[in-house]
Amino acid sequence: MPSTTIDDLVECEQCGEPAASASPIEDRDLCASCADVYVTCVRCDRWTNDPRKTLDGAACPSCVTWHYEECEGCGWLSSDTVTTADGTRVCDGCSDNYWSCDGCGELIDSGDYCSSCQDEEQCPSDLIHDYTYKPLPEFHGSGSLHFGIELEVSAEDGQLRDSAETAVHHLGGVGYLKADCSINYDSGYGFEIVTHPMSYDWAIDHFPWHLLTTLERSGCEAEGNGLHVHISRAGFDSPSHVYRWMKFLYRCQYQVTTLARRVSDQWAAFDESDRRQVKKYAKGAHGYRYRAINTQNAATFELRIFASSLRPEQVKAALGLAAASVEYTRTLTVTDIVRAHGWDWSAFASWVHQHPAYGPLLEEMEQFECAC
Predict the structure, then answer these.
(1) Structural domain of residue 282, as residue ranges?
(2) What is the pLDDT of residue 1?
(3) Is 142 among the domain residues?
């Protein structure tokens, strides 16, 4: 074997010392000693020489700052923490040490009710189901593409029972109420309106939209809360259809978040790592829950991007964006994408103009100046 000469050595671009071989790290050739301190961030896939230990693996400082919190139970950094009734932030593993308040569903470590729900008047558990409640779905409308709405509502202090009674009365068999610890309680207490699966046309024609106006007039609020739209996986033609749909939403993030009235945040993040893994998600891979598109559910995709609202036209527009984006990408071809810029928002806006069924969406697009 030939011996290594000085001409064969390379200079490490970090320490400057000669080395027999070098590893390319961040576009620099580093010797084995310098390269040894670098690892790939588990979240952004970039190299870092200052890794932080998290429950997901080693992460760079930037990702830790923006996407992780310290679990107050075990002390580990977690990207998926939840808040208990007493305000403690815990990771998914430590949350197993808690159980749900029988009234509002928040995590507690003793008793049956959290301190806020000790008064049964503030805890109408006969009307508001536990967070884990999941009845058999009752499908409304024809076809395979159905949508489910989850709308978070805050009630005035002392008015939770009256508000819940109003909601249950108007919903009938269309939906039910659940407790959710993520609801903004600044104005009192609250609940989440959850609908059974509905086709888009059926929802526009038959959902009790006047309920939202009635709740607002009674003092309920949506500010600070979220609106999620579940979309049936069965409504997509193929993995390629799912891929086109996800790609379109990620490419048009600005317009989508504008219409959603909500910026990308820790509960509904447009994450770069998800953008790179769209093809895997289209084929059935599951990602994180708190994303713009939650891919964890077996039967649905969940669009978590919308701010909650008690204005019927805004909720109709959210439902319309979910439905229209699926139908628009259903027949989108490679030629449409390459030659007609089919993934551009302007092409989608033109399509919406030609489909009157999405009138509520078009009105919202015009209001936010993204209808062209």
Answers:
(1) 147-367
(2) 44
(3) no
32, 38 contact by CB (below 8 A): no
Q: Are residues 69 and 151 in the same domain?
A: no
β 28-30/23-25 pair status: antiparallel
Residues 141-173: tens digit of each pLDDT = 999 999 999 999 999 877 888 999 999 999 999
Q: Considering the entire predicted model, what is its pTM? A: 0.71
CATH of the domain at 33: 3.30.60
* In the predicted structure, residue 139 carries a pLDDT above the cut 70: yes
Within a domain: 114:
no
pLDDT tens figures, 345-355: 999 999 999 99
Rounded to whole angstroms, the Cα distance separating 362 from 344 reads 16
Lowest mean pLDDT among 67-81, 193-207, 311-325: 67-81
**Count of structural domains, the chain:** 3
